[in-house]
Amino acid sequence: MSETPLGKFEHMGPAALEILRRRAESLSSESQDEVQVDQMSLLLFRLGDEWYAVPIESVREIYNDYEVTPIPGVPDYIPGIVNIRGEIVSVTDLGALMRIPARPEAVVVEQASAIVASTEECVSALLVAEIGDIVEVAADALEPPLAVADRGQADWVSGSIYLDGRLVGVIDLEKILTPIGEEA
Fold first, then answer.
1. 85 C-beta neighbours (distance < 10 Å), count
2. Contacts of 29 (CB under 8 A, 6+ apart)
């Protein structure tokens, strides 16, 4: 008998062996195709009582040790700017922008975490209440944003996804990071 995996079928002849070999290759590639689902990585974070996410490819870093320098003449949701290793970056308070109330028990004991996110147009440090995990989800699991009572929140969400029984809004960074004075 031959040392090949199909050795026990040698009695079937070369044509049958070739058919079996092709079928084995086909089955092998089919199982690989099934495993290869378009995935997207999301960074989870909390604002108030709700969970949101941003695509990880737009996140440059998580920033925890910073000092905000206030600047006059900007909207209330822009508390100022920070210096990140020589780069001046605007700070955006996502909760204030989206009109999400802070948790009542959230006494400011420590500084909020900032997600430094970027698009081709802009970079900003996004202030959030809590940083969560990075999760991998199937790209086709992203659903259109659900209608919510507060239109101010829905305007900033590009989609939603269910994770562990909870609804997570995916932030539309192109809208959030549109420079002030320009329309998205």
1. 6
2. none
114, 91 in Cβ contact below 8 A? yes
**Strands 80-84 and 50-55: what pairing?**
unpaired
Q: Could you read off the pLDDT of 93-150 as tens digits, one per residue? A: 999 999 888 766 555 556 788 999 999 889 999 999 999 999 999 988 888 876 554 5
Residues 6+ apart with CB under 8 A from 145: 154, 157, 158, 159, 160, 169
Find all residues with CB under 8 Å of 181, minimum gap 6, and list them: none
Q: pLDDT class for 42, splitting at 50, 70, 90?
A: very high
Claim: this prediction has a pTM higher than 0.85: no
Q: Give the separation between CA 96 and CA 102, rounded to whole angstroms.
A: 9
Pairing of strands 87-93, 59-63: unpaired
In the numeric block, which tokens belong to residue 77? 């949701």
Dist CA 33 CA 28 (whole Å): 9
Contacts of 178 (CB under 8 A, 6+ apart): 121, 122, 184
